[in-house]
Amino acid sequence: MMEEEAFDVAVSFCHVSKSFKGFGGQVFHALNDVSFDVGKGEFCILAGRNGSGKSLLMSIAGGLVRPDSGNVAFPCENDSRNATGKSIGMVFQNVRESILGDTALDDVLLSLGIRDRKMRNPKEIAMSLLEDAGLKGKENRPSHALSSGEGRRLLAASVLALGRDVIFFDEPYSNLDYPGVREMNRMIARLKDEGRTIVLITHELEKCLGLADKLFVLDNGVLVYSGNPEGALGSLNKWGIREPEVAAKGIKSLVWL
Amino acid sequence: MKDAFFSYSKGKGFAYSVPTFLKVVLYFALSAVMFSLRLEFVALSIAFIIAAYSVSGIGVCRLLADLKQAVACFVMILWSDVISIFIRGKRICDVGMADFNVLLMLRTVALISLASFLFRSTGFYDMWKLSDDIERIIFGKKKSGIGAVSGVFVMFVSFIPQTFRIWRTLETSYLSRGGRRGIRMVMTLMPMLIRNSMIAADMTSDSLASRR
Fold first, then answer.
1. Between 20 and 30 A from B31 (CA), which of A15, A125, A127, B190?
2. Which residue out of A55, A100, A141, A160 would a mutagenesis test of the B interface target, given it has the greatest number of B Cβ atoms within 10 Å?
3. What residues does each domain of chain B span?
4. Chain B CB contacts of A88 below 8 Å
5. Whether complex ipTM tops 0.90
6. Class of domain A40-64+85-253
7. pLDDT tens digits for A51-61?
8. pLDDT averaged over every residue in chain A
9. pLDDT higher than 60, residue A82
10. Does A171 have pLDDT greater than 90?
11. How many contacts does A have with B, using Cβ atoms within 8 A?
12. Per-residue pLDDT averaged across B35-63, rounded?
């Protein structure tokens, strides 16, 4: 028997389509036959102009929105009969509305409580996750008093508390200053090193492309590029994405760390 | 940044050492009792609550901040009376009207004070855990996940400060455009508050659903 090259797929989008009806009855095709695989442990960037369907694709992967046709499979989930995207964690773009706890600690504790009611020492685990997220000393700060960057890192910590292996970050750099972007990238790089699968939704490629294993580009709901990041250079402008200036050090230098 | 109304504030007084279950039971029991007490006893209860608040470790200033909400209720009480006179030619309650209005206002103050005591001194996680425990006892135990009732609780608790935050944002935006505080501002911003609150609630609901 021939051995095939091992490629564990974490998430597989298969012919996913979704459309919405407008007030005048006109149909807007938000996603059109989108198919691609995200490998286990990969860092992928899903790029595209505003309204191209990136966040919608994340919502479909997380089971929040049903596609009109096609499906999303999670081959790596242990119990394939109940594979419903429970391995997916989502760090949403709207930080303020997505934090559920009164304080940073509460938010992570809530996730731990949802994961397992009988967990021993949840507070210690929560503190450790907050420390990893760079929020040590801010655990009792009201969640509304956290900055955008801190809020995003808190959401990531809460997602990790759920024990999710695949993490989607939706526009993690919006409203972040340079140190905030660097903090976020450090956290993402660490998660990548830990072997987690990461899908980062953004159009700011100059801040993160150097970390990516794969790049997917959506344009008007259609997947127009899928492959290694280098292959897309030179074509990004026509898809509404700013072409990053690749320095002499190469594409790996395209990351704010 | 200003504290949101009824938001938890960390402290070390006796209010924080009372078990959450007891606080919730007392909250509902005392709230019900307030509706059966006469005016002078309600006033006495408020004095007692304020005295308890001052030694609770929460801080009376936080109670006063929460009591600002009572002003809107006072306006509504008086306004409904005015409308009643205008439409029916008489007050809502003909007998002892002045007392009735004062009683309603005092009850409002008492209820807000009790809610303030509960929410200011009880962390979100403790409240959620209690609601989840009760749900699991009633509807059966599950090791993981989030129940329907405790899910609604999370939404409700998140919704209150969110609504106030949205209101503050709208108010700032209105004032920065040259508007003035008043009834007109409230009438203008109310539909926007409802719309924005619904959008925010939808996002919060997604966040909760993604953690199930």
1. B190
2. A100
3. 1-122, 125-212
4. 210
5. no
6. alpha beta
7. 999 999 999 99
8. 87
9. no
10. yes
11. 91
12. 88
Measured distance CA(A186)–CA(A196) in Å, rounded = 14
What one-character DSSP code corresponds to residue A243?
Answer: P
Question: Nearest by CB to B211, which of A111, A118, A140?
Answer: A111
- H/E stretch holding B93 reads none
Give the residue extent of every domain in chain A: 40-64+85-253
Q: Would you state the structure tokens that stand for residue B91, as one six-digit string? A: 């007050």
Token pair 């700032």 is found at B172
CA distance B135 to A127: 27
Average pLDDT over chain B, rounded to an integer: 85
DSSP secondary structure string, B2-34? PPPTT------SHHHHS-HHHHHHHHHHHHHHH
Residue where the block lists tokens 């993690």: A172
Contact A140 B10 (CB under 8 A): yes
**Least reliable range by pLDDT among A56-70, A135-149, A197-211:** A135-149
* Contact between B143 and A97 using a beta-carbon 8 Å cutoff: no
| Most A-contacting residue of B12, B158, B211 (CB-CB within 10 A), to test interface | B211
